[in-house]
């Protein structure tokens, strides 16, 4: 075989998979379609702003991210963990900034709260679970916008158990962290590890079995063989790439939708913005779900923001006007603009049936599937799946397919 282990996709799931495999003695080749690694981790550098960056996607790691932290420890990155300075989130509602607490109905919350501890989370949607647990008006006015800001898509039908998973916190680690030049340091550090090779601009378009291993076809028709294969891409691409002898898994995974997000990145000179420091905006009724600021790591010259818009809601010019309105800024003062297309899985109630079907078909084989659509969409959820898949592949001993 050309390679022992090939991974398709160089997001955190794929690079995590390569890391676990390499540590288990299986050198790994990671094939990435785009010209950069990291996927949803994308610390965007503004070219005209002397190395100033803003996160276009993932922006925060937490001390509850045990798998991520154990990897960072192992690859010597813990000293790079950098505290995020506290700043408030604000609501953007009816064209005005407002405090989060202004949307809270305290009496309703107090009456409803006991139900939060008695309502089962499993099998419930976000609106069912939190609407019951904090009251319908609290859900409508505060939680629904806050959750959709968090996952950059309508959150009502998302499975409640996949929105937040309880994970133990490490008291010896910063509660919330970034890295000095952004979270993109993490995929970059993983890609530098011994026994991990990453090739960018390599789109995998088909996968076929080859004895107990696999053949992977690239966009330029080159073919590579491997003993073990990991697919670390979004569900619709997994559905396309799964070998034809797994029709039930292909069909099940093909039902999982994706949410498209139009992200607008803006950099301003700090002196040109008359806006108190803020963590970000939760939009209640505008065309964007949320905005995330770079204020958590103050820069002497610039301030940056990522506005996450509903797909196709506004054209580029109107997006800029809407974002500047929310920041109270004059569009003429924007130093640099960038656009990024982000995507996240749009999980729905009953998602576990999809995962169970896939896992049943993968059992006992040398094919792994990972991503941000198994335990939830966070970095830790993605790495949890990668770790479990690689324990299955490399520790349990693979057999036939
Ligand atoms: C705006 C935003 C904010 C977020 N904020 C946070 C946060 O603060 N904290 C947190 O924990 N999580 C956050 N997340 C979620 C988290 O960043 C993602 O869920 C996670 O990074 C996904 O990693 P992944 O590897 O599963 O997928 P991706 O990052 O999507 O990576 C998949 C990779 O596969 C590549 N690929 C696709 N098809 C092919 C192919 N055919 N051949 C080769 N390569 C292919 C893609 O180009 C991509 O690089 C955020 C996400 C977004 C979008």
TrEMBL record:
Pfam families given in the database record:
Amino_oxidase
Q: What sequence ranges are listed for the domain Amine oxidase?
A: 12-272
For molecular function, the Gene Ontology terms on record are: oxidoreductase activity
The lineage's top-level taxon is Bacteria
What is this protein's name?
Answer: Protoporphyrinogen oxidase
